[in-house]
Amino acid sequence: MSTPAGARRRADAVRNRQLALEAATALLSEPGAALTVEAIAKKVGLGAATVVRAFGGKDALLDAAVSGLLEPVVRRARDLLAETTATRALHVFLRELLAFQTAHHGVNDRLGGLDLPATTALRADLVRAVEEMIEGARREGTVRTDLDPRVTTTLIGRTALAVAQAQPPSQELADAYLTVLLDGLRPLNAP
Amino acid sequence: MSTPAGARRRADAVRNRQLALEAATALLSEPGAALTVEAIAKKVGLGAATVVRAFGGKDALLDAAVSGLLEPVVRRARDLLAETTATRALHVFLRELLAFQTAHHGVNDRLGGLDLPATTALRADLVRAVEEMIEGARREGTVRTDLDPRVTTTLIGRTALAVAQAQPPSQELADAYLTVLLDGLRPLNAP
DNA sequence: CGATAAGTGAAACGTGCGTTCCAGATGATT
DNA sequence: AATCATCTGGAACGCACGTTTCACTTATCG
């Protein structure tokens, strides 16, 4: 069904699968959207059954959609770590992360009780990357060392998401958050 | 029914109403609890119909329960503002607010699409109190003046809630949050 | 152009939940 | 104790969703 090993797959089915994925992705970024199978199906003019069948269930569809959004973010975090100092990577990435989350209005908030394996894995990658940024910035002397890097990472993850979920989205709030957070993270004898 | 003007109200109905309220309040603080009418009813050995009828609907019941939790918090904020400096009030209250929210594990997180008038009003009161603390602390020279007090209040409200919703609850995270937040809120030329 | 298997979607189904009904139980009043 | 309005809760109802069914459609291939 989802990936029948030796069977033929019709071209229209492949196309519809892609359409469903795009519709789900679009709905994820719409604040008040219903996020039901019916809503996704209607958005592309397909039947609900077709949308569900293409992924084997609603959860799998949303997992694919969220993963697709998250993947470039994770890649960006890794690229920044490789390209520049941890301090600069942290500052740049936090700003971009906030912009991303604001644009998609908290990709998290309506995903309460769902099981999204790929998304969970990507989120773990993201946490690891931020953790590396924090540890690097500590070594570079730009982040205080009296806090556990793990705890700091958790703190950033949770608060950034909360700020991004503000309704309506506010650039002023995001800026204030970054200002307070980064100042608060500086060593005590900072410039 | 809920408050029949001239009619008699039986004592057992009054008692059951109180029991339902207590059960709902208890469930609000249990992380994974179902928060359904059925669950509330079973907790006190009543029928679901009785629980709902006592308040005229599930929303009203939860509104009463959440309000009951929130009311002493709001009063405490007001008391602190009257008793001491805004700076001290802000510091003390933030710590207490975080402890409260952690204890009740984010009273917010399962209240998504519900209409809770009394709770909303209390939250507005809370926001106003924190705003007064921020404004006062600015005048006292302990909080930076380059951020809008309104925005700062929103920032605190959203991030504090997010920190309190951490699963499992972590005192270390809460402490780190307070440290970073309060340091980040200090004037730039701080001690 | 058949023939055949894959794909489709309206309708049916199952589940979970809040709410409402109503026949019987119970507290209040005389 | 008798009477009666109030209260109760199991059952039925309505609604929202995700999922499954199945008669029908359509792409694909010889």
Automatic annotation (TrEMBL), chains A, B:
Keywords: DNA-binding, Transcription, Transcription regulation. Residues 36-55 bind DNA. Signal peptide: none annotated. Residues 14-73 form the HTH tetR-type domain. It comes from the Bacteria. SUPFAM superfamilies: Homeodomain-like (SSF46689), Tetracyclin repressor-like, C-terminal domain (SSF48498). This is AcrR family transcriptional regulator. It comes from Nonomuraea roseoviolacea subsp. carminata. The lineage of its organism: Bacteria, Bacillati, Actinomycetota, Actinomycetes, Streptosporangiales.
